[in-house]
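Reagents: none. Just compute today. CsbD family protein.
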Amino acid sequence: MAVVSFTSKLGNKAQELRGRFKRNTGEVTGNRRLQAKGRSDEVKGRFRRMVEKVKDMFRGRGRRRHHP
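Predicted 3D structure written out:
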């Protein structure tokens, strides 16, 4: 299970970085469609990473905050 989670997290981060690259390339070239696709990929990757963090919290592997 941990291996699947790790590869999933890695894939989500990769999608976010690919999106950032597309968005930046679109900005430099003036290609609005590429900018929009890049933004979309970034948001999807960021959202999926957030979902993984929530899953980890429920599985007991995430960071826990202790209140005094």
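DSSP finds two helices and no strands in the chain.
Action item: order primers for follow-up constructs.
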